[in-house]
Design brief:
The chain is of the alpha/beta class and 224 residues long. It is built from six helices and seven strands. The chain has a domain of 141 residues: Rossmann fold, CATH 3.40.50. The strands form two sheets. It has a five-stranded parallel sheet, with helices on both faces. A two-stranded antiparallel ribbon has the order 2-3. It is globular. The chain starts with 7 loop residues before the first helix and ends in a 22-residue tail after the last helix.
């Protein structure tokens, strides 16, 4: 019985699937080894640390469920003295709801002093937030605060070009189960592979991550 050979298109598709699976597996391995031992509980955070809260969707002047959970976690760390400064990193554009302004307002309503809050309105993505935490705010260590599905990748990216990180996972009891499942899938199939490819490409030519920084030493702490 003769074996039917694959045509050129089928072979190309098969090659793409194999390469895609390889990139997904490689990115998962990279993230796992980069983040292991660095995800800690709130009680393990050294006192006097600085938290870096990664932004997410806001709407109508209020934080969405994901970023609200991150801010609540940062507030809890602040109240126990585990962190003494909180950096809000997100998209400060009014087109996207002025994430950092909304985050600052939420923290202040929760009792965080204005002088303890720093804003980075040019933290458009996780990589940029990490790089700018070091380059624009002068941080050498940081406590990343985000959801568990995002935290390992954030730690991996910060270890490359940002402050030396540990991370605290922000629980999100108000997040829909299907939304959390979708984000886990997005991390595994899109975000982590893209981060790995971006890292490899950056070895051949680094992108600029500079932009306006509110709360940096150069710009002055907003509200002080």
């Amino acid at each position: 019985m003769r074996t039917r050979r694959l045509g050129p298109l089928a072979r190309l598709i098969l090659l793409g699937v194999i390469l895609g699976e390889g990139v997904v597996a490689a990115s998962a391995t990279w993230v796992y080894f980069a983040a292991r031992t660095r995800v800690v509980s709130a009680d393990e955070v050294p006192r006097g640390s600085t938290a870096l809260v990664l932004g997410s969707k806001v709407s109508g002047g209020e934080p969405g469920v994901y970023v609200r959970a991150r801010l609540d976690t940062a507030v809890a760390l602040y109240r126990t003295g585990r962190v003494t400064r909180i950096v809000n990193s997100g998209n400060g554009s009014s087109r996207y709801g002025s994430e950092t302004e909304v985050m600052r307002a939420y923290l202040q309503r929760a009792g965080v002093g204005s002088s303890a809050i720093l804003d980075d309105p040019a933290g458009y993505d996780t990589e940029r937030s990490c790089v700018r935490a070091r380059s624009e705010f002068g941080l050498s260590t940081v406590v990343l605060v985000t959801q568990g599905f995002h935290l390992d990748r954030a730690i991996a990216l910060c270890r490359l070009d940002g402050p030396d990180p540990i991370g605290v996972a922000a629980p999100c009891p108000d997040c829909a189960w299907w939304s959390i499942a979708r984000n886990h899938l997005r991390e595994a199939l899109l975000a982590r592979p893209r981060a790995l490819l971006s890292t490899v490409l950056s070895w051949f030519g680094r992108r600029s991550v500079r932009g306006p920084a509110e709360g940096s030493a150069a710009a002055g702490v907003r509200g002080r």
